[in-house]
Amino acid sequence: MLHVGLADLGKADEAVGAWQGLCEFAQRVGANGVLVEPLWRRAADATQGEDPQDGHGDAAPADADTSTTRLGGQAMPTLLADMARTAREYGLALVVEVALDRAARHATAATALPEWLAQPVDEPARDPRQPPTAGQVLTLRAGAVPPAFLQAWHARLASWLDAGVAGFCFDAPQRLPAADWRHLLGGLRGHAAPLLAYAWTHGLAPEHLAGLRGAGFDGVFSSLPWWNFQDDWLLHEAHRLRAVAPLIAPVGVSRGTPHADRRMLWAAALAGDGMLLPARTLLPPREIAAAVSCQRQRPPAGTLYIVGGPPGGATALLRRAGTPLAIADTADLLLINPDAQAPAQVAPGLLAGVLPPGALHIADEAGTPADLPDSLPPGACLRLAVGAPQPVVSTAYTAMRRQAPQRLAIESVAPAVDDGAFPAKTITYRPLAVSADLIFDGHDTLAGEVRWRALDEDTWQVASLVPLGNDRWAASLTPRRVGRHEFAIAAWRDTWASFTYELRKKHEAGVASGLELLDGAALLRAAAARAGKRQPAEAVRTVKAALHALGDLPSPASQGERLAAADLPAATAERVATLLDPALAQAMRLVDDRAFEAVTPAYPLWVDRPQAEFASWYELFPRSQSSEPGRHGTFADVARRLPALREMGFDVLYFPPIHPIGLSHRKGRNNSLIAAPGDVGSPYAIGSAEGGHDAIHGELGNLQDFLALLRDARTHGMDVALDFAIQCSPDHPWLAEHPDWFTRRADGSIRHAENPPKKYEDIVNVAFYAETGKRARQASLWEALRDVVLFWVAHGVRVFRVDNPHTKPLPFWAWLIDSVQDAHPDVLFLSEAFTRPRMMLRLAKVGFTQSYTYFTWRHGKQEIIDYLRELSQPPMADTYRPNFFVNTPDINPYFLQGSGRAGFLIRAALAATTSGLWGMYSGFELCEAAPVPGKEEYLDSEKYEIRQRDWDQPGNLNAQIARLNLIRRQNPALQSHRGFHVAECANPDLLCFWKATPCHGNIVLGVISLDPHRVQQGEMALPRWLAGKGPAGIVAEDLLADGTETWWHDWHGVTLTPDAPYRLWRLTAAAP
């Protein structure tokens, strides 16, 4: 919509022409409506020289039924009918701003009755700094709104609708309760539907916005014009506003320069579901129209991100077209330099957790590829877009073969899992450091590069190696596609660089001779002679020009001959300078013959979507989600919980098995061997007459109900993870159809699942290999299990939690995961293997994306530190991604059984801040911990019965969990298991640490009490290197209390209580 003020309309004799011109302008820029300020007579009309548009006038009506004297003082319906008629001629809807919460002190009786308004008891002397209209406006009385007030406004606005007005924008909407808004708007929609109703909400407090939910508005307005292009309050406000209605981003008045106007225009295009355009701007109409088109073509659903870099850095405003988990997603990206005076650096890697996989290109130029720039000019903004991704689809890959010994050795390649036997793992858009030792005899200078590509690409991309010291070299690559990749390292002796290194040293020492000139000329002649079509023509010309500049030199000595010293040319400064010219060095690199080149075999690399490394999981039993006591829950009941779960910040919703449950040997409550009538059994006893692993338990719903839930979850930005449990009840159809898939004991009975001394009478296991002969694999069983996964993948499931994979053969998992991911590389697998550490690591190597961990049993400070260091550093970090679940249906941690509410806060904070992946089983947020005496098991376990809960009961952790997840989304340092560093603190009950992105563009400092019962105090060491040398301080932004302070010392004191057992700060260097 175009925003039009009274000043834009001019005076009465100019208004008609001005209005037509404004409508024409709105049509040119692609607007679909015009929002005009209140046109009624105001108190300011009676004040000589007071202009309602000069920033001091108020929109309060003195006569709401008569237009302002500037527009001729005519009846409002008459004026609005003329304006609406003109607007419709240009295809525009006329929307009128209304301020019904206040009126001029001497307003007409038809406008406001005195009893509706709060009357001042006495009138203080007017502040001379205030305009003459100050004190002339009265606001609506507090309390219940009089019915006559709503009736009067309904009649007035209905008459305006009859005149052709399409809708209204209500000022100060918080002055009326949501129920009154519903009454008023419902009546107006009954009078003339459709009606457009907007709420002027910029700057409203969170509690006022919460009061407008369900009021019936079609749109609300953000505070974008007041954004400084840095702070993330805009994101918080957008989250609150969208809970009320779709968000409209005002561009605001011109900021005085095209640069400033352009930044705000495109920020509005990305930040809003609609735009409010100014009538006056310094930008050309075609650019405004482009912004409107960009906003309009984007789907209304989508996720907004604001990612800021270090001080002096650029800000990224990202709007994804779909949900954060969609692989087939596109995005609009706006890089903004908030500083109009200085360039801004674009920190690499900051967007890795939020940028969807796909080709980056210049906005509106899909065929023009682009990279993120290193910096932005002062006050500039840059529009980029991420196109539809092209996942890497491959059928096989070959492990690296050992290379034959060569003169130049390439060793200790990293990342290389088991020397390339398994792929290292990364995610799209995260810069990956590849390094190796390059070893060569003598003192020659070396050169090298990393060559990398997706497996379905023919062309290698190249990144030059740079020396790190001690023969270690490194390069960085940034994959953008999901799936299999490979990289190789090539290195060679740089003949020209070796020659010029020695020449420079000799020249500086004054011992260079004509012999060095002859050696250099010989190298140049050789380069020119081998130059062919593959060498750049410009480089060849540079080489030949250098030869010419050296002048006439003696021919090289023949075999067995030697030039006399008198025949050697003079090593003049000019000739030496020619040979040491940087441009010549660059040319010789391009035509180098790469002597003794060594190339490693290709190392495998697996690239996942960001959710493989950054996600918050929530586990629930669908059958317990009914709000009616005793009723079996359904998928529809789960759908009703989605808004609350997304409000807490979860983006993966995980279900235990949803398949039919067997009747034979069904378990009763609390794992009883005898089930009573009505007992629901364990969902892990899969299979009955209703079907097996590709069927759905009838009381949950059917396949269509599940698919509807899947769609609803993705609408809320959540993925659904299914439990892939390879176990069967004795009633599973496979037992009758494929008896050879199961192991029988000596007495002919089927072997039940066992974990001695435990025996699971309701479960039987399949046999992956034949028991006789050559122990061949059961190919038909393997294929059937793979087909189960592919069945759910075909229906949209992209995440699987695998039950006890360590009890199934490793070759089976390698085969199954490869088979699935060859065609669907975006599928993720979570390993639930609480077993020996090396087995857990091996499961990650063969393909599991994530893994449960021993986090649940790490309580002491040093054991937590040791475990986090192990997980966050190579070699573990290259392939093993930990998912820190704070509890599970199987594990009721001893720590939580006696910790009270504080213990739950402590474990949530530990999990959420030290790993990019964390999860919880429902009930954790209610601090449930009643155990089976002496065991880490829940009393009245939900595995064997339906448990219904009051999710809003007092003492819940909903707000704290939501805050932790919000902080995670806003800080890339917390979006990975990497980057963990310990901050020294003498108190053994305080864990102090900081996490950082590789470039240190984002640093989060945390301190967590490990004692849920007592107050803990301590001094923690600060990362003083962040402030650099000198007296500069560290700016600490409190991520929980929303405050900022500057720390100047090496240590900082902290006090934690059981009610507030953790603190988090975002650190940046203070401005010098």
Describe this structure in words.
- There is one protein chain.
- The protein is α/β, with parallel strands linked by helices.
- The strands form eleven sheets. An eight-stranded parallel β-barrel has the order 1-2-5-8-9-10-11-12, surrounded by five helices.
- It is globular, with a radius of gyration of 35 Å.
- The two termini are 44 Å apart.
- The relative contact order is 0.06.
- Maltosyltransferase that uses maltose 1-phosphate (M1P) as the sugar donor to elongate linear or branched alpha-(1->4)-glucans. Is involved in a branched alpha-glucan biosynthetic pathway from trehalose, together with TreS, Mak and GlgB.
- Residues 45-71 are annotated as: Disordered.
- Alpha-maltose 1-phosphate binds at residues 667, 727, 762, 804, 943-944.
